[in-house]
Each structure stands twice: as C-alpha cells, then as structure tokens.
Amino acid sequence: MTNYPFAIHYEATSRTFHLQNDNLSYIMMVDDYGKLLQLYFGKPIQHRENFSHLFNFTTHAMSASILEYDSSYSYENVKQEFPDFGATDLRSAAVKIRQENGATVTDFRYQSHRIFAGKEKLAGLPASYVKNPEEAWTLEIQLLDALTNVTATLSYTLFAPTFGGIIARSVKLSNNGNENLQVERLLSLSLDLPDKNYEWVQLAGAWAREREIEERPLAHGSQAIYSLRGHSSPHHNPFAALKRPTADETQGEVIATTFVYSGNFLLQAEVNSIDMTRLQLGIHPEGFSWQLLPGTSFQAPEALLVYTDKGLNQMSATFHKLLQKRVARGQWRDQARPILLNNWEATYFDFTEEKLLAIAQTAKEVGVELFVLDDGWFGQRTSDRAGLGDWTPNQDRLPNGIAGLSQKIADTGLKFGLWFEPEMVNKDSQLYRQHPDWIIHTPHRQQSQYRNQYVLNFAREEVVDNIYQQMAQILREAKIDYVKWDMNRSISEAFDSSRPASQQGEIYHRYILGVYALYERLTSEFPQILFESCASGGGRFDAGMLYYAPQAWTSDNSDAICRLKIQYGTSLVYPVSAMGAHVSITPNHQVGRMTPLSTRAAVALFGTFGYELDLNQLTSEEIAQVKEQIAFMKEHRDLLQFGRFYRLRSPFATVAGGFGDGNDTAWMVVAPDQRKAIVGFFQILNKVDEPFNWVKLAGLAPDKHYTLTTGPTGETITYTGDELMAIGIDTRKDSTTTFGAPETRSDFSSRLWVLEAE
Ligand code: DGJ
C-alpha cells in the first residue's frame, strides 16, 4: 500500500490545493477567473503539480455564460467550492448576501490563502480541536466579493491519518466595505460530486424513537433534512451519508457529514440535470439572516466531512474517534463514566427527601456510584405546571436544601447529580413574574406553550446571566458531581424583543450561542462536573452538545427492544461513551413491554449505563442480578465505552448494509489491542426449532486465539480470530453471563459473549 504524505499541498503555477493523507484526497483549483473549483474528493491519489486535466465542463442550452459573445463558460455544470447566489451557477448556493439596494448577487473570487499546522478555535462556537499542531493541517482560503468588499474565509482542517479520513470545514464572512449588509444564507459545507450513484442515509425519528436509519437512492432535485425548531431535533439528526449502493458495513465508498452545531440546520443533496450531486450543510437559511455591518464578521459553525472506502463501520469509527477525542472536552472525556441511578422513572414528581435517601441507600449497596435527582426539586415544581426558572430548592420537599441532600448522599458514599432545564420558564414562577418579557414571543401573537413551559430568550445576555447566577450558586454551595441539562420544547413564535427589525433573523442562532455561552461558563467554572445533555431524551443529540457535555440522554424511551434501533442508529455517528442508557422497570413506561432484566441490562451496557427505577421495589433475586450487572460493567466499562464499536446485525431489516429480517440485532466492542471483545446478541421473537444462525464478528486479530466461556457450566471454547470473523458464533451458544438469572430462550432474550485472547 502506498504511504501518502499527510499534507496540504499548494501549487502556485496551477493554483491547485491538495489535501492528502492515507485516507483521502481533496483537490481544488482556482480557475482563470479566480473561482474556486472542486476537482476531486475520494480515495487518496498521488500528488501532481497540476490537476487541471481533471476539470470537466459542458455547456448546456439555456445556461448563462460569463463571457461576452462567447457561450462557452458557465458555472452551471462546474463543481464549485463556494457557489454564489444569483449568477451562472443556478443550483443551490452556499452564500447569499443582501446589499442596501436589495441586490443579492455575489461573485467571490480567490484572493489569498494560508496553510498552517494545527487548528484555530471558532469564537463562541463548539468545534473540533487539536492537542498539538502535529495533529492537523489547516488551509484557509480567502475569497473576495469585490463589489461589496466582503471576504469569505473558507477553512479546511485535515486531521492526521490516525483520525481516519476526516476534514473539518467552516466559513467566515467579513465586511470590509461600507454597506450595511444582510447575510441571508451561509452554508458551512458545499461539496460538488461528479455523479449521483449514491444512496442517501439519514437518521430520522421523533420523541422516543430517535435516529432510526432510513435510506433511499439519490434522485434528481433536492433531498433534504432539516430543523426549524431551534434545536437539532429528534426528527432529523444533523447527519447524512452518501453511500455507494454496494457499500455495506465493511466495504465500499461512503461520504458523510455531521454538524458541530445544535440549532436549526439544513442538510441537503441536490442532483442536477446532468447527475452531479451537491451536498450542503449549514444553518437553515429559512428564518435566518444576519446583519453584517461594516467592520464586522460572521462565523458559520463547523461541518465534519468523512470519506472512506471501507464501508459504514469505518465511517462510524472515524466520527466516533473525532467526537470522543477531539470534540468532547474536559476531565470526563477519557474517563469511564459513573454508574448512576436516576430517580425520574422511579418517582417522577412524587418524592420526599426520605424517599430519595432510601433509594440512594440501596443504590449504594448494589454498587451504583452516582445518584441523580431529576426534575421537581426547585421552586414550586410539584408538577410540570410551575417552577421552571426558579433554581432554588423547594423547602417543602427538601428541608435541608440541595446542599443538605447532597451532603447526605455523599455520606452514603455516592456522588450526587442534579437536573436543570436552564432554557425554560413556567408562567407560574418568580422569574416569569419578574421578567415576563424574557420569554421568546412575537408581539400581539399567540404565545404557544408545550408542557406549560416557555422558552427563555437566550439571545439576551442578561437572561443567560441570570440563569448562570442561579445555577452557579447551587453548584457552588452543594456537592454536585454531575448535571443533567434538559430542554423539553421547540421554539415557536420566534422574535427577539431586545433587537430591531433588521436583526430579527438572528434570534435562532443567537439563542444557541447563548446556550453555548452558558455551557462554556459553567464547564469552565466547574470542570470536575460531568455534564449530560438531554432534550426530552435525544432531541439535541449532536456534536455541538458533545463539545460541552461528553454524554447525552439518548432517548426517553427506555424499553430495551426500542433501544436496539435507537442505539444502533445513534451509533452511526456517535460513540458508545456518549450514549446515556438506563435499565428501567417493566412493564416499560413508554411502550408497556415486559422484557427480561438481563436484556434490559445487556442493551444499556453498551452506553453510559445506569438505572432508572426504584431499587426498593425489586425482589431479592432481581437485586442480586443488578449487583452482578454492575460488577460486570465495572469490570468491562473501559472496553464497552471506549472500545471500537462494530455493528454486526441490523434491527432495520434491509437498510444500511444490514442483513437478516430485523428480528436479531448484534453488535460488539473490541479493545484497542484486540485482546478482548464483548458481543451483544438480541432477539425480538423467539423461534421454534430455530435454524442455525451464525453471526460473523469483526475487528478481531485473525491469528489470535480467543476463548469464550459460556453459560452456567463454564464450558470454554477457543476460536481463532479469523474463524470468528469468517464463520462467526453460533447464536445458540449460551451467554458468558446472564447476571445470575437462568439463561432464557424467550421473546426479547439476549446473549452476551466475552472473548479473551492471550
Ligand atoms: C425529559 C427527560 O428526557 C427525562 O429524562 C426527564 O428528565 C424529564 N424531562 C423531566 O421532566
């Protein structure tokens, strides 16, 4: 195999840029008119001084040419890097700026560039980062729209080959002219591809069924996913992949992108009449505009772009590594996560200090490490009708306040975590009574609510500051090790009463900047606290949130069988260490299903793991199982949370390289040194006279000998890695552990196999 240099080349004579490493090549060229063209993105190719022979172009009837008396050059069918609105490229633009006279045409042309080792921060925004300059090269290309004197700085960071084939892209506009401009569209990524022979893979869903995999072939016109809800949303995760139809988990070309951003987004693939594909990702232009006054800049968020020819698993591994190591930050980034007990499904709003302490006491006895007090501890919050916005302890329920309770929890030997929903307010609250104008609402229009709550205008600094003061006080005075940051409704009737008409298009973005600013203040002041983000479960599960909170509550749906699809889909982009997963009670509170305790644990083990039930309601047999589950997690959690994750069998019968009928799900994690692996196998319905059913494993060392210990009899079998990957495990084999419960062969049963090599 050729070793390609990890480099960004620039050839002055041909004005060519080549981002190159062992995983990819990304080639651009400046044409005779100064436009920045895309020449190639894909498998690495060797560098040359000139790639202009790769430029292809055809004229078409009805195209507009840029040349007078010469119809031979139009951008309509040219692959571009930063397509302008309103000129000869009549596809979807990357940029649209409105001048004072109302004109919206731009003409961005190459002006200069710089290449440097490492990567710079994006002010006020989450983004990938490097630990030292050797980890990445960055290319900044400055384009100029001469008429308005606006520069666009396109930034491309190529990460070292150890991070896989991944590029971070963003763009900044600076107004060096003297007009008051309005930016109406600025997409972070615009990538032109020469053909349309791809399947579009997306993660769609809703509350409690987040991130289910859907795929379809690309077709002429636009296929898009988006959010206009003010948060990235459970309906469409800001991710899409373009995979070749023959690509599957282990082989084939995949191009994929995700957004390091948590607000409104648009992700689309537009296929034109000659089958070229334009993949774009950015802040959704609808409801967006940004006043760009002379001397000011606007920074668009970062998009991550992956290329691999090794299938969907390599795509996921590339996202996992970067998100886990170079997007997530802080002390908890690389640490195995504490096993927690959250009281939400155990008590909902119905708790007293005594009841909480009783649960915590049992939690300690079974081996839980962190007790989390969820909603209902503050203000007049005894139901969802009141209290949001008043972050002071409810003295009726917690006579010793949070400080007192947290001390008592600490005395039991547990860490303590607390729930907040910082961005929201109930009308029945002190905060609302004092500041009714702080909610997002449009004057003289209906004020819509969800769950009796309203969204605070985080576009206003004083609002963010008030919430910061309240939260920081609690975090300072109590012993708090963990914060669950919830967000339970979308934004409606958006309007920013603190700003003039010319800035009303800024509210959604300013809102999310306010959320980021609060996260930044709290995570800097309380670096020891583990933050978990949440938005009615997985309603804001995105790379932007992971920058502040290294884990997120994956879904409010805690049913083990529903979780198979949710966690499988989520794993396309996000690592196991980011996925909050809890064992809950049966019948399950969301779907009413009865599943074995062992299966509930086996699914949640591939996550940050915890319990969301009243341990005091369990039988002594169940408590014994819980103890074994926790002991198992403690023994294996580094591997489970930080090992390499492989999807083996898809719960989505026919999509994304999955095979089978969707009745089985299998996945596994493999240690970096390939000496240990854990396989999870889950079946929905049991079968009579079951046919042989082998699951092929992945990621093992072919020549290592792996020992599998099964079942209560402790039978051991030794396989070679190549056997396990070529032939697999017969799924009728007993589990390595069922946590002390008898091995069940029933509906919703599961098997866990631990494989160990010398
Ligand atoms: C929604 C969250 O997803 C739940 O886990 C819980 O925290 C509730 N909100 C509390 O209101």
TrEMBL record:
CDD domains: GH36 (cd14791). Pfam families: Glyco_hydro_36C, Glyco_hydro_36N, Melibiase. Keywords: Glycosidase, Hydrolase. Residues 34-292 form the Glycosyl hydrolase family 36 N-terminal domain. It is an enzyme of class 3 (hydrolase). It catalyses: Hydrolysis of terminal, non-reducing alpha-D-galactose residues in alpha-D-galactosides, including galactose oligosaccharides, galactomannans and galactolipids. Transmembrane segments: none annotated. Its EC number is 3.2.1.22. Residues 665-755 form the Glycosyl hydrolase family 36 C-terminal domain. PANTHER family: ALPHA-GALACTOSIDASE C-RELATED, GLYCOSIDASE FAMILY 31. Belongs to the glycosyl hydrolase. This is Alpha-galactosidase. It comes from Enterococcus diestrammenae.
